[in-house]
Write a structure and sequence with these properties.
Layout lengths: L1 E6 L5 E8 L2 E10 L5 E2 L4 E2 L10 H25 L5 H8 L7 H12 L5 H20 L11 H13 L4 H20 L25 H9 L5 H16 L3 H4 L7 E2 L2 E5 L6 E5 L2 H9 L9 H14 L5 E8 L2 E8 L6 H14 L4 H8 L3 H4 L7 H12 L3 H11 L1
Antiparallel strand pairs: 1-2, 2-3, 4-5, 6-7, 7-8, 9-10
Length: 404
């Protein structure tokens, strides 16, 4: 750890710079002298000669105490922490009033890198960057005290102005609250107004394949390797519920007879996924080394597979950004992606009577997330209702007969 004082020519402030490897912490001592009044080699304010400072003795005494205090804090920080997290050290050394909200946000991201998947860190960084653009656009000071209900209302309107759908806005609000909570727990602010932040978003429409549609895909034969591989991977997903990120890193060592075991990329949870005859047949076809395709190429190929298989029922997808409604109508294959396979697995498994609790064990989802899939097929809801209360068709036929 290297400690050096220097004078900033722009404002004459004396800063203490701490360097460790390639990391740097810059602390304002609160003292000011002209650049030529500080001896950089001896690290003192000049006391004699033409460049002397009248209060050199007092300033030098202060700087000596300031340096000793910082070194003592660093020593205690290293003793109290098993590993040296430089971002956390910065926050421990800089007084709360000097801490910039986004400086703390960077420290938050650094602190969770070891426990979150790279894709999650990218998403959280995206949320932080978007928040920075908002603060810059509205010319706001990036302080914790400014994160109040007026801040929240402006942020909502900013996101709606970016034409983000309500479900995405909900995630951005959730990300902000998670960060604010993290900072509150570490005493970087005392502002609890963020706890009031709330945003209502309509539940996402669950687009999944029916059992008949899945059968159509399974029966469809293809000639090109591109579509053959895409079909096999998609069907394998439909029978296992895998996320595409996990599908593409699955290898032969993960398979153990009638199941496969792996640690998910997103949550790092250890899952045991049972195999059915259809999924075993596909895995065996590739000697348990499934083909790997980039996400974009895979999604494009899936649409072609579904189109060729006749998955072309008209679908209406409605999304909202604030009060603004956006309606998209098109053939079903246009809306199908790799994630549709995961939704299909969950939807069909629930319809077949598999317990939501067991499905959570297989997919790694929470029960709250799983409940989104229950009762989303109006035809299945109607069938279940009529199974219990009876079909109205006989009554309708009788009424039509009486009218004649």
């Amino acid at each position: 750890m290297n400690y050096r004082f220097h004078v900033d020519k722009r404002n004459n402030s004396i800063y203490l710079t701490i360097r460790h490897n390639y990391e740097v912490i810059k602390l304002n001592s609160g003292q000011k002298v002209r650049h030529n009044q500080f001896d950089q080699t001896k690290q003192v304010v000049i006391r004699t000669g033409s460049n002397r400072h009248e209060e050199a003795f007092e300033i030098n005494s202060f700087l000596g105490c300031f340096l000793a205090d910082i070194q003592n804090k660093v020593r205690h920080f290293i003793q109290d922490n098993k590993t040296l997290n430089f971002s956390e050290l910065k926050l421990a050394l800089i007084p709360p009033k000097q801490v910039d909200l986004f400086f703390v946000y960077d420290a938050y991201i650094d602190s969770i890198k070891s426990s979150h998947a790279p894709a999650t860190i990218i998403t959280i960084t995206k949320h932080k960057n978007n928040l920075e653009k908002f603060v810059e656009t509205y010319n706001l000071k990036p302080t914790f005290d400014n994160v109040n209900m007026l801040f929240f209302d402006s942020y909502k309107n900013y996101l709606i102005g970016q034409e983000k759908v309500n479900h995405t806005i909900l995630r951005y609000v959730g990300a902000l609250k998670t960060f604010m909570s993290w900072a509150l727990d570490r005493n970087y602010h005392k502002n609890t107004e963020f706890l009031k932040f709330s945003y209502n978003a309509e539940a996402n429409e669950v687009i999944a394949l029916s059992e008949n549609e899945l059968a159509l895909i399974e029966k469809k034969e293809f000639e090109t390797d591109r579509l053959i591989r895409a079909k096999d991977l998609f069907v394998f997903q439909c029978y296992t519920g895998l996320r595409v990120s996990d599908l593409m890193k699955l290898n032969s060592t993960d398979f153990h007879g009638d199941h496969f075991k792996f640690r998910t990329k997103k949550t790092r949870a250890l899952l045991n996924v049972p195999l059915c005859p259809a999924s075993i047949e596909i895995a065996d076809k590739y000697d348990y080394e499934l083909p790997r395709i980039s996400s974009q190429k895979y999604n494009d190929a899936i649409k072609d597979v579904c189109k060729s298989a006749g998955i072309d029922a008209t679908v209406t997808k409605i999304r909202y950004s604030g009060p603004n409604k956006d309606t998209e109508i098109g053939p079903k294959y246009n809306f199908i992606t790799s994630h549709t396979a995961r939704r299909t697995f969950i939807t069909l498994s629930l319809e077949k009577g598999i317990s939501p609790k067991f499905l959570c064990e297989i997919t790694g989802q929470t029960l709250k997330t799983m409940m989104k899939y229950i009762g989303k097929d109006p035809d299945k809801v109607k069938q279940e209702f009529q199974r219990i209360y009876g079909s109205p068709l006989k009554l309708v036929k009788l009424q039509n007969t009486n009218k004649q």
